[in-house]
Amino acid sequence: MRRPLAFPSCVCALRICGGGARAPAGRLGAMENPTLLPGVGPDATLLFVHAHPDDETLVTGATMAAYAAAGARVVLLTCTRGELGEVIPPELGHLEVGRQLRLPQEAGMDDAGTGPVAPPADGTGLARERERELASALAALGVGEHLWLGQGLAAPASGEVVFRDSGMQWGTDGRAVAATTVLAGSLSREPLAGEAALVASAIRALRPDAVVTYSADGGYGHPDHVRTHQLTMAALNLAARDAGDAPGWDVPHVFAIVSDRPERPLEPGVPRISVAGNKAAKAAAMREHRTQVVVDGDRYALSDDVWRDISGVEEFVELAPPPSVCGVL
């Protein structure tokens, strides 16, 4: 595990301005007057905790790229491989679990894959594809450190484990809810305390200056996003305590991602923190997540075919680590 990068003298001129750290124009590539998180400078270590590959790019990619370009140590922890996600490209449609044909180009395929003798997709192929996509996306963001929950610094003492995508379905209010069937080994079905302990181990080892994850409702309700928030909050509490020879680490700054969904406005008086990050790097990373995202110039669409503008501005709120989480620890 590498240590925080030495900071070039030209970037030491970063100063706090308007609540965020501001860098000289030109130092960070295509960004104009980039702003960073308040109190978290370019010599910091940041840990981003996300549920599936592509989440890191869609909602925090510009911020991750800005910090990486500034010389900060940026680490991503991903909880699942998103093996139950939808697949956009027709030529990869056979990777989607339970695929239902919905595009004219897929007339020669059935739900099982590319022919009548192909076995039904079980998510293994999509998991491998999304692993590759994530590696390419992180390279585009300039992020060189990545962990899977259950592996590496976040592995249990008994040996590495894999947490599955829990899946989801859309509720009547337009928000994600739990799938009808959630398989054993899925992130949202495994014990929260055990998952939190794994993330706490990573936090003690990394000693981050800031941790970034979802808000309590996961942004749009996906069970894995909600669980990722829960396990991260619980891990912050655990990580502050010593564990054997590993000294505890009290993370100075914790940030939640602000959802752009209108049905979940922030409570009055909660200040938003805007980070003006690296839009070009974010767009490049989005292109790498081709099973999940289509990019056309400065706009993108997910599997819902709704086009949205790519933004280099991402919003957060600062949280205080809880003294306990629902009594589960």
TrEMBL record:
It comes from the Bacteria. GO terms for biological process: glycoside metabolic process. Keywords: Zinc. GO terms for molecular function: hydrolase activity, acting on carbon-nitrogen (but not peptide) bonds, in linear amides. Gene3D superfamilies: LmbE-like (3.40.50.10320). Pfam families: PIG-L (PF02585). PANTHER family: 1D-MYO-INOSITOL 2-ACETAMIDO-2-DEOXY-ALPHA-D-GLUCOPYRANOSIDE DEACETYLASE (PTHR12993:SF26), N-ACETYLGLUCOSAMINYL-PHOSPHATIDYLINOSITOL DE-N-ACETYLASE-RELATED (PTHR12993). This is 1D-myo-inositol 2-acetamido-2-deoxy-alpha-D-glucopyranoside deacetylase. It comes from Arthrobacter livingstonensis.
